[in-house]
Amino acid sequence: xxxxxxxxxxxxxxxxxxxxxxxxxxxxxxxxxxxxxxxxxxxxxxxxxxxxxxxxxxxxxxxxxxxxxxxxxxxxxxxxxxxxxxxxxxxxxxxxxxxxxxxxxxxxxxxxxxxxxxxxxxxxxxxxxxxxxxxxxxxxxxxxxxxxxxxxxxxxxxxxxxxxxxxxxxxxxxxxxxxxxxxxxxxxxxxxxxxxxxxxxxxxxxxxxxxxxxxxxxxxxxxxxxxxxxxxx
Length: 233
Fold this sequence. Notes:
Cyt-d_oxidase_su2; metal ion binding; about 10% strand; membrane; 8 helices; iron; transmembrane; two-stranded antiparallel ribbon; single chain; two-stranded antiparallel sheet; mainly alpha; 2 domains
């Protein structure tokens, strides 16, 4: 709404089921399952580890395929946005963007800013690293490979959208960018203080959970879970 500056979803549920939306959802599921499988392969024993190892290979291959297909859709199918100019005070005049849409528009910025290729390169390198490390039973390297793959995928999404944060399909000129979506100094300070407190709480909980589960041995068996079911859950 250009008057109240409130955002509204313009569409229906089935509009979310577009090719790039479905592909992004499947890719996210594969990314999480792949990382979880490498972690179980690293931290468990027996049948659970064998199942996790098989899952790393099967999901990893699907992960590679979906990542490639999603990238192809972005390059050849999706109409991307290009920000040509902003108003004299972009943080105040949020509706004064000059935006054009074109096929492959999201990918064109990669040639203007070559450092953006670091994102997809890290994603592919992380997946291959995890697969090869799992094959040779280098479980720690496999886990960190999957972590790099996740970082690369998220970085690729951010690099591709930059400088957009939330593109508007209804009116591209009203898209949110890193300039017109900036918050006030008061809100930023408040979130900083709240974030510090919550971060300390989460850090304390993580240290307690890590010590409770992994303090005795680096891996878990089914017997360990049964013996400590009141502590682990």
